[in-house]
Each structure stands twice: as C-alpha cells, then as structure tokens.
Amino acid sequence: MSGPDRPIGVFDSGVGGLTVLKELRRQLPNESTVYLGDEARMPYGEREAAEVVEFTRKAVQWFEREAQPKLILIACNTATAVALEIVREESSVPVIGVIRPGASAALTATSRRAVGVLATRLTVRSGAYFRALRDLDPLIDVIQQPAPKLVPLIEAGGARSDEARAAVREYIAPMLSEGAVVAPGVDTILLGCTHYPLVRWAIEQITGPVVRVVDSATTTALAVREVLDSHRLRATGDTPTQRVHATGSLDTFVQVARAMFGQATEVHPATLS
C-alpha cells in the first residue's frame, strides 16, 4: 500500500476507543483503519504509570509490525496522559492523543469557565487534563473526579444498567455541588475516558440540560484530519478497509462493537509481546 493509502492505527485499553473510531470513520470515510483494544490488560486507569507506558509502547510496536500505519491515534486517555510523549519520540509515524482535543472541546462548550473532568484515577493523578485546560485558558476552573467503577462496568456489558447509573451519580454529584458558589458547580463535564460516552445517557439524566457533556471524539477526528492534511497523507482511494483486533476475550468486545456500528463486526485476536 502506498503512503497515503496506509491505514490509521487506533489504540485503546478496551472497547472505549470504538467511540472515537466511529467518529473517525464518519469524518474520514475514505480512510482505512486498524483498531487494537488491549482487553487482556484493561483497565489501564488503575495501573501504575510505568506499566501503561510499557503497554502503549508494545501497542505502537504491534501497529508498526502488523499494520504499517501512516498515523497512530492513542484513543485512550490514560495512555495519552502518561505515554504519549514517550512513544511519540520512538515511533516512525505521527502519534496523536485525545487529551488536547478533549480540552479544546470543553473550552468551546463552557460558558463560565467551570469544567469538571471525569476520568480514571491515573489520568487524574497525571494532571494531564488540568495542564491542557490551563494551557489553553489560564483562568479556567477545573474540578477532576476519578471514576474507577465505570470502565469495568462498561467492559462487562453493564453500560445500560442501574449499577452504572448509581456509579455515575456517585461521581457526578460532587462536581455539581461541593464547594459551589453558583449551582451547579460546573457548567461543562468533560468525559476524560473514551469508555464514558457509553454511559453518557446516565450522566445527562443526572446533570440535566443546564450542564453540557462533551467528549474528545469529534475534536480528535478533526485533529487527525489536520495531521493527515499537513503531511499530505489523505487517502487517495475509495475502497477503505476496516479491521478490529483485541487481546484477551473477544465476546463482550464483539457485542459492544455490534451495538456501536449497528452491524456485525469481526474482531480478530491479537497478542502484544
């Protein structure tokens, strides 16, 4: 395959990055994609940073070995937070993440510079979203809330469950009320994990219409498009291929992919050595 017609590699710790992949396919329908979900070792958000760096490094090596992509998108907020700069230096192709685009989406949405970030423990600990938001607007108020129950629930197929709603309420309520001079405490909630759009229904039930809920999918796809254009890497053909791979068990992955794309999606096994 020629340079521009090589695929875009999309990496996540599990099924969450499918939310970004769906938007990528919508905005760039002529582009081929190869998705890799590291089901065997998720959730990343509860691991040590060094582990996540090593897993992300192995994923990038897998892409370069198995897919020869023209660009790699790390569609995992945790991996972006702790590993992006490291693997970017080591990769032979451009590598982009989801945190900067997510921060941009939140700043566009907020009306009074009050943003809540719902993320994994490791993403919150890294301070990556806090820094990205403050880099874009030094006066913005940022509240960060770790949500450790959500990824395991979603990966177990419980995204539409009462348990998911209860967990969301547990995490969202403090951002809306604690220490707030004006209610609600934030006017925008940024979903700082690509799994979380799968429980957006519950988040919006709890926040109500006065709080905007945003994620990084749309702005990340725009960022990919900008990189492709700046490097003259837009696909020239009109017959793209779409491949999905996962480590570990494939059963839940297949079910989530079917629900996401509205059709059966073949998921191939992968091994990160």
Determine Rg (CA atoms, Å).
18 Å
- Name the poorly predicted regions: none
Listing every helix as H and every strand as E from the N terminus to the C terminus, the arrangement reads EHEHEHEHEHHEHHEHEHEHE
Characterize the biggest β-sheet. Answer: 6 strands, parallel
| Relative strand content | 15-25%
Please name the CATH architecture of the largest domain.
Answer: 3-Layer(aba) Sandwich
Explain how this protein is built.
The longest helix has 18 residues, at 49-66. Helix 2 packs across helix 3 and helix 4 (99-109) crosses helix 6 (128-136). The protein has helices spanning 18-27, 49-66, 77-90, 99-109, 121-126, 128-136, 150-155, 162-177, 200-207, 217-230, 251-261, and strands spanning 8-12, 33-37, 71-74, 95-96, 114-119, 141-146, 188-192, 212-214, 242-246, 267-269. It folds into two domains: 3-97 and 218-269, Rossmann fold; 99-216, Rossmann fold (3-Layer(aba) Sandwich), CATH 3.40.50. With 273 residues, it is α/β, with parallel strands linked by helices. The two termini are 25 Å apart.
